Amino acid sequence: MTQYTIWGPLEKVISHRQRVTRLYRKSLNHILSWDMDRNKWRDNAVRLRVVFDQFKDVKDPRLAKSILKKAEGEFFKYQHPQPYIAPWAVGGTLHERNMPPHPKTLELLPIQQEWLDEWIEYYSTHPQD
């Protein structure tokens, strides 16, 4: 059986408490990806909290580590294939969408500038009704 971990090289660096906290927060975010309705999300979040609270007082480090590995496996099994990313975050729907164009992009060619000047001159001398 494959051992699942969502931390990679960080697995040895961060503490067990940090790993549990991060798993909980990632799980909450993925629950929100499955259903954007906040009322349903809140119900699921409360159920998730109950599951995490069941194992809160485990003192045996080996048992706690095995529970965490199993929970990470569950997370991998049920994570959303396309998680919601905030629009302003990197990879989000609005990230770099309205960046200002390069200054050269807004420059007109000489012939285009002539056409624009003619157009402005024509419409300034011929008022429209």
From TrEMBL:
Entry membrane topology: Peripheral membrane protein
A GO BP entry: mitochondrial electron transport, NADH to ubiquinone
Compartment list: Mitochondrion inner membrane
GO CC list: mitochondrial inner membrane
UniProt main location, coarse: mitochondrion
InterPro entries, per the entry: Complex1_LYR_NDUFB9_LYRM3 (IPR045292), NDUFB9 (IPR033034)
Family to which this protein belongs: Belongs to the complex I LYR family.
Descriptive protein name: NADH dehydrogenase [ubiquinone] 1 beta subcomplex subunit 9
Source species: Oopsacas minuta
